[in-house]
Every structure is written in C-alpha cells, then in structure tokens.
Amino acid sequence: MAGIGHNNGPKQLGLGWQKQCWTQSRNALIGKRMPIEVVRTRIRRARELGLEYPQYASILLGSGRDVIGFLFTVDGLQLKLRKRLEMPDTVQDKLRRLEHVSLMSFAPSGEAPAAFLREVSNVAGVPFLSAAPEVEGVLGWSGARAAVRAVLDPLKMPSGGVVMIGTRESEARMAQAAKMSRFIPSGAFFGTVGANSA
Fold first, then answer.
1. Contacts of 107 (CB under 8 A, 6+ apart)
2. Of 52, 49, 94, 53, whose CA–CA distance to 68 is shortest?
3. In three state form, how does the secondary structure of 114-150 look?
4. What is the mean pLDDT of the chain?
5. What's the alpha-carbon Rg for the chain, to the nearest Å?
6. Per-residue pLDDT tens for 27-80?
7. Which pLDDT score is estimated for 197?
8. Most CB atoms within 10 A, among 44, 143, 179, 184?
9. pLDDT at res. 198
C-alpha cells in the first residue's frame, strides 16, 4: 500500500534500466563505435583545455557537456602572496596555452575581487573573467553552491560546464555541491610535483 504523498506512479526500475536505455539511444545515434573524426575532434579539444584525452573523455561522459571554463582556488593557482603576487612559471605556461575556455578564480580572503582579478590576469598573462571572495571555514551544501555561483553568475556560466582546480578536500566537496563537471587537483592539472592534491 502506498504511503502518504505517493502519487501512485509506476515503480522505479533502477539504474540498470536507465543504462540500457542510454546505451540503446547512443548506439542508434552513432553506432557501437565512435567515428574517428569525433575522436580526433575530442583529442584536439582536450589539447586546447590542457587535459589528457582520457581525463577529458571522462568529463564528457560524466557531465554530458564540453568544458567551457576553469574555476581556480587561490591554492589551485599555486600563488604566492608576497609584496606582489607571484605565480610559478609552470602555471603561467599552462594557462597561456589554454584555448577557447573561460578562466575564473576565487580571490584571497580580505582582498577585493576586482583588484585581484586585474592582478592575477596581469601576473598570469591571460585574462581572468570573474572573481569572488574565497570563503573560509566549513560550508554546507547551499553555502558551497552560493560561493561558486558568486563567481559564475556574472558570466551566466552553468556550473555543469566548469571544472574546479584546487588542492583541498573541502574544495572538492564544494565542486560537488555546486554540481560542477569535475574537480581536478592542482598538481595533476599543472603537472607539478610540489603542489598539494586532494
């Protein structure tokens, strides 16, 4: 007997049925093997984004959409906040090679996002389009979503097309709460050994 609030709809058939439907639909659309031109296009796009092809393919499969932006945490950019902002050469080089993708960042606590945006764009040698204050402390799911939306909303950017680059487990949870397409540890993204990784 159905409980209070039940709409007497059909029983859910589970993930196995959804996977079967998805597989059949995909096969009807492109066949059992992906055309080589699609693979080549994806390899080219992975290069533009500075990602390995398996990493990019995994993001596509998981989110169902292309990567349109990267959101960096302050630690994710491996910045050194001294008298003036400093960024490792390896980070600068990688950022300068990225193509057809929007760059965004959290600003360090206590620093005006607009000023940080100008400074980080100058130091990196590439334009960062949006910044919002980095939130300190433990955030609930709604707080994490709000922190990410503060960076993405000025650009009307959907979180599902944005990858977060950071260093902490709390940042990975923030990306998950905001339904971002992926969280990638900074050391893995920039290929640096000394970076902390989640």
1. 74, 113, 116, 117, 131, 132, 133, 134
2. 49
3. HHHHHHHHHHHCCCCCEEEECCCCCCCHHHHHHHHHH
4. 86
5. 20
6. 776 666 778 898 999 999 999 999 999 999 999 888 889 999 999 999 999 988
7. 38
8. 184
9. 38
CA 159 to chain centre: 8
Structure tokens at 152: 């993405």
85: left (phi over 0), alpha (psi -120 to 50) or beta: beta
The domain made up of 65-190 is a member of CATH 3.40.50.1000:
yes
Q: Cα–Cα distance between 78 and 123 in angstroms, integer?
A: 12
Q: How confident is the model at residue 15 (pLDDT cuts 50, 70, 90)?
A: low
Residues of the chain with CATH 3.40.50.1000: 65-190
DSSP 3-state assignment of 164?
strand
Q: Report how far residue 116's alpha carbon sits from residue 103's, in angstroms, rounded to the nearest whole number.
A: 13
The 10s digit of each residue's pLDDT in 31-44 is 667 788 989 999 99
